[in-house]
Every structure is written in structure tokens, then in C-alpha cells.
Task: structure prediction
Amino acid sequence: MTSEVYNFAYLDELTKRMIRRAILKGVAVPGYQVPFASREMPMPYGWGTGGVQVTAACLMPEDVLKVIDQGADDTTNAVSIRKFFVRTAGVATTEATDQASVIQTRHRIPETPLTEDQILVFQVPIPEPLRFLEPRETETRRMHALEDYGLMHVKLYEDIARHGEIATSYAYPVRVEGRYVMDPSPIPRFDNPKMSDCPAIQLFGAGREQRIYALPPWTQVVSLDFEDHPFTASKADHACDLCAAEDSYLDEVITDDRGGRMFVCSDTDYCRSRREAGHLGRLGAPYEEAAP
Amino acid sequence: MTPVVQADALSGGFADPPVQAARAFRAILSAMARPGTICDVAGAAPPAPLSVGAGVAILVLADGTTPVHLAPSHDTAAVRDWITFHTGAPLVGAGQAVFALGTWPALAPVDRFAIGTAEYPDRSATLIVEMPALSAQGARLTGPGIRETAQLSLPEVAAFAANRALFPLGFDVILTAGDRLAGLPRSTVVEAA
Result:
């Protein structure tokens, strides 16, 4: 039920217009971080204030919203944001990826392929891929202007020199349409290939850092690598212990203090739909409908 | 004597701004993210010669922080009053405009408009170009947002090709005809069909 005391989707219209203009400029220059006047939201920084503002600027009453946190629909962050928009925008919600029109995500891209009718909104903590290499905003801005990305390749090279391979496992930098180097947000590098040639619109919001950026559909997104050390999308070398999926990104769960562990799909909707379809993993029990 | 604002200028805005603006923005986002796609919009009833599509784009995107330039084709008292009343946007010359509104011939020469800077390519103008009609025929489009190729009835090719050559700088374009609109971001490669 919508709360009458809030404007539709919480933000005032002036704020939404400002965010919408930033989103359109982001779409026009894929991978470029557009500054925007991020508002204080009724949740702390780090809980998705950027993503929430982008979602609020995009939502229509007809939308069906899905919110995930590390792939899960049922964790605190996801539940809170979903409730926030049910209360302030009155939108329908779902946990099923293929039913959603807008998906806000923290640090995962769903396993189920996205479609042309969907918008994926990422929550981004540090939007600047060069920030840990060069702390000065004036310098990183100039580096983007000059396409001066040598420093990033040095960082990846040092990974190889030290670990024998590129050890960056999440927030793995990408190059968009051969121009801007972009932080894909802290998604596992397993998800990087899903960004390229994706049918859905991908929008990124960083609230504390006040940046919005975007990938239109069918945009070429390449993970940075070297000819002799090509990019690989890595995951735990196991099958899901609940649904037996071998193609999904897995979380490792410690189950006791004697070295017991299990691997489960990080995407809870994907795992559920596979168990519903009868797939059964090493530790899985046959799927039963949850009691109402 | 204070100029009198015609009563017409006070009507023709959104009846339910949060919801109508949200739907219209999604159409504009869809158009800009998928060049060549033509979207329907509704909700504005601006004075002639402003089309519904251009009126909606102005209502959704313009406000007191976004200077608007009116090309001679649209620089009438009725249009000025309507935009000023509904958005509060200052009306300015081409060089300072965040949005520019007019027919393609009236907007020429388009190199007057802001194209952003190397460090802030977002500080560029968006041209709202009023067209007699829009159809998925004509110039060949490729680039981000387009799976293989798309076609769109653009007023010309050379100016858009020159704009693309400036990438990541350049202006972005919303084409409007009646209650339909299409987007042409600077990232799109435009060639004669």
C-alpha cells in the first residue's frame, strides 16, 4: 500500500528531473561517470542510496520490482529496499527474475538472462575504477579525458607478477565500447561477460560518490586483460549442493567447525526455480512449496 | 506595463506530474538507449507549434536549472510563456542552452551548441528537434543500444556524422513528431542508407 505522505517513488520531482538528465547523459556516453547532486536518503551510505535514487527516478506504477543483495532476494538490504518502494511507489514486487521489469542489484547480475524489457540498476560504492591507484579526482578525471589507462594495466601486470595470474576477483575493470574504463561495481568477475551485449538497460548509481553511469543495451564491454593472460570468468569449482547447477556463481557456506562446507547458488531465485524443476544437489532435499 | 501572460500558458501541463512524468521518462530513456526506436508519449498539451512529444520532453527534463534555447521556428510568445510557466527554465541564446528546441533548419548551424568538455562530456546540449514525421526508414544507425543496425528518418546525415566524430563530446538529440519521439545520442554512428 502506498503511503500518501510521500511523493510517488519518494523523491521530489525536481530531484527526479536532475537524476533523469544525468541518466540520459550517461546513456549517451556509455561508461562515463556523470556527476549528480545525490540526495540524502532514509538509509545509510553503503546500503544502496545511489541505486535507490536511480530506481526512484525510473519507476512507473506499472513496474514489477525485484531487489537482490549478493544474488539473494531475502537478505536485509534487499527486503528493506523492496519494502521502501512498495510503501512509497506502490509497485508490485517479485523474486522471479523473468517477471521483473526493474531489478535493483547489489553486487550480482542474475543468472537468468535478462531481456529487452528490463532495467538493471546497480548499487555502486566506489564508481571510479582508478581511485585506488590515484586518489585525486582531478587526476583521474584527466586520465579518463586523455584515455590514459596505463596505470590500470600496470596494476593488472603486478597482479600477474605477484600471483601468477590476475588476482582481481570482483570489481574487475572493463572497457566500454573501446573508450571509457569503467568499474562494473563489486560484482564477481564471473558476471563480467553478462554485461556485454546485454539486451537490458544497465544503470549504475553511486550515492555517496555522487555519480551515475550507464550501459545501453547491446553495448560492447570488454574485461581488461593481456594477450598471454586472457580474462577468465572464474567461480568455485563445484556444483550447487542444493540444485546441482554447474553454471551458476556459488557462495561457500561453512557448516561446522570441523571443515564442513557447502556450496550454494548465490542467486536464490535461480536455485529455487531449479529445485522446483526437480534438480537436486548433493545436500538438497526434494523441493516443497513453502507453507503459506 | 507588465506583459500579460495568456491564460493558455497556464494549462497543458501534466495532470498528475509524478506518474505521467515517470511514464514519459521511461519512453525517453527507451528512445535514447535504443536509437532508432520510436516511442509514444502523452500528457502534455502545449501551444502550437510545439508538438506533444516536445512538450512532454520539456516537462520531464527542463526546470529552473536548465537554460532552454528556442530556435526561430518555435520562438513565439505562446511557447515562451508556456515553457516559462510550466518549467521556470530561463530562455537563452544557443551557446548557453542545455536544451534547444526547434525544427532542424531553424536550429542550424548546430555547431553553436555546447558539446561538453574533455573532462565533463556531460555538459553538452540536448537538441529537441521537431520533425514533420518519424519513421524507421532512412539513415543507417549502428552503435551502443543497437543490436545490429537500425534505421531512422533523420533530417540529414552529415551533421550527425560530424557530431559522432567528436565522441565522447557532442550534442544529443531527441526527435519529435506529434506524440512520438526517438533518440539519437552522440554515440550513434550515422551513415546514408
